[in-house]
Input
Amino acid sequence: CALPISAQIATEHGIRLEVREGSEIIDPIKMVRANTAQFGVASADRVLRENEGGSELVVLAAASYRSPVVFLSHPKLEIRSPSDFKGHRIGIQAGTNTELIFKALIKTVPLSQSAMNVVESGWGTTNFESGALDVLAAFDYDEPVQLDIKKVPYDIIRPEAFGVDFVGTVYFTSRTLIKQDPNQVQNFIDC
Output
């Protein structure tokens, strides 16, 4: 089960709860594929990309109806839409949903990646704060909060305002587990 579900509720549904926070070395998709975890939580686009690569993962439910990816810019630069990205340094996290949403967002203009300097942003806000980046792909529950605490000004670009909508986080399992133990899967969904 996931973080919001108490161990007591999970136990009542026959599930032994062990929550492992994801990180660069703990990947819920790899864990479910390797059968070291039965259920996982990840962004919907990651699950879909894995399935395109041959994995047989099944989305059970959406934890959030929209992706939390936003783009932060320095107010003095007046970057308020994807068309304003032209000629600027844009920081994304390659291989994550920030990259996918960025690519979808610039297609709305349309604008080629060659019209801007797209670089790996790294984690956190340091490169944005220092001015090394003009635009930072971020998660609206994380980097804006960090900047607010530090009183660093920023403008926010929400992809959905430009017609780019992605489902956020989903709960998933493997097709194998569904076939082998459908009751356990249903119990997970019920809790």
User: Anything to note?
Assistant: The chain has a mean pLDDT of 86. The radius of gyration is 19 Å. The chain has eight helices and eight strands. Strands lie at 39-43, 57-62, 69-73, 89-92, 117-120, 135-139, 155-157, 169-174.
